Amino acid sequence: MGLANFRHEEPWRPPSLLLEADPPWRDAPRRVLREILTPPALRRLRETWQPVAEELVDQVLAEGAEFDAFTAPAQAFPLRAFPDAVGLGPDGRERLLPYGNIAFNAFGPRNDLVAVEAQRVAARQQRTDHAAQPGHRRSAGCGRPRPRPLAICHCRSRTVLL
Which residue has the higher pLDDT, 158 or 122? Predict the structure, then answer.
């Protein structure tokens, strides 16, 4: 991915079953994503996200004509839309920002931004993993608990239920 190569340098996170795994390890998770990211499913997300985006824009504009486009809508929207879509609860959503920062910055060469964010993410990773486990997710969204997993994926030292 990008300029970072997990096969030739120490990764900042465990290898992803979607991005860094080869067949057959990646097949089950990719099948699950194909179901979740179908055009009709994405249209439903748009129907859900459009009002959220409009509400955020109205809130920002109500505070005045000048605003910081990064902190006002660009941070607020993903912290509302994405967690709702995957079924994360309302607590701790702000912890997704450091993860997003490192995910973006890690595409490039190792630098101070990656080092600082890696430390911040490592300190929060256990809480984030806990919130994403079955039984801790909300009943809405594509990450909702299911009566049985769609797939069981084994990759190195991790077993993932999808």
Answer: 122
CA 60 to chain centre: 24
* pLDDT at 13 (0 to 100): 75
Q: Which residue has the higher pLDDT, 6 or 130?
A: 6
CB 28, CB 152: distance < 8 Å: yes
Q: Which residue has the tokens 């079955």?
A: 134
Q: Give the integer Cα–Cα distance in Å for 158 and 155.
A: 5
- Greater model confidence, 72 or 131: 72
Residues 132 and 88: beta-carbon distance below 8 Å: yes
Long-range contacts of 6-12 (CB under 8 A, 24+ apart): 9/110, 12/102, 12/106, 12/114, 12/118, 12/121
Side-chain-facing half-sphere of 115: CA atoms under 13 Å: 3
Secondary structure element (H or E) that encloses residue 100, with its range: helix 96-105
Q: What is the pLDDT of residue 17?
A: 82
In 3D space, the residue among 130, 161, 159, 162 whose CA is nearest the CA of residue 14 turns out to be 159
